[in-house]
Sequence to fold (276 residues):
Amino acid sequence: MQGMMQDLYRTDYHVHTERCGHAGGAARDYVLAALSCGLSEIAFTDHVPLYFLPGEDPDPALAMARSELPGYVEEVRALGEEFAGRIDVLLGLEADYAEGHETALQEILAAHDWDVVLGSVHWVKGDWIDAPGSGKRHEREGTEALWGEYYRLLGKAAATGLFDVLTHFDLPKKFGHRMPASLARAEAEAVAAARAAGVAIEVSSAGLRKAVKEEYPAPLLLKSLVAAGVPIVLSSDAHAPAEVAWGRAEIIAAARTAGAREHLSFRKRERRRHPL
Ligand SMILES: [Zn+2]
Ligand SMILES: [Zn+2]
Fold:
């Protein structure tokens, strides 16, 4: 009788907007979708401008231009006011971790009043690990080398203390390239880094929509994160209004199977705990 019968606090902690150049739909439509799914809150977490690459708009298909950030913040806050009392709309950011550029990110994070900051490692060995076509890197550069470097960076990202939540913990599997068994230690070190930093992780349905057809993190990895005491948030990584809360039943089931009994929400980067 647990879980299903409770009045659950329903959240989605990873949602994009069309500003990033690879998501569709008006921000307001994401909120309407969240309302129709019965969510208690939705956190907009669009991609941070690519602060670690040169130029005003280094890749319009991957992230908003630097100058667009204030407009994003304004729009999300305005939606928060419009929908107050019906659903909580939170201001978040999916921030890339880029080694050596921590100060630049710190400045961006300090400029606005975020509810939650997600930390993502997408940039590995000077290129994207998850962009269309990135799957070929595994053949060219070696799966082992990419996974090893990815987990090294993820551990460093955790240790910066800049992030509330680490996203898609085992992202390099996206195109179906599973972690080689030889990397088990690197993975364990990333888990230990998350634990030591006190950062949360997301259980994300996005992987279910990709070639790998599995949530992030994988079941055994999620189990070791939960066993280590790393808290979770629930997320869809929606890039379209129809993807809000997508796969929610599956990720809740995965989290419970892994032993999780609660999930987090955030306000002004302060966490709250809710039964799962
Ligand atoms: Zn995206
Ligand atoms: Zn991401």
Summary: The mean pLDDT is 96. Residues 94, 120, 122, 167-168 surround zinc ion (ligand 2) (CB under 6 Å). The first strand starts at residue 11 and ends at 15. The two ends are 13 Å apart (CA to CA).
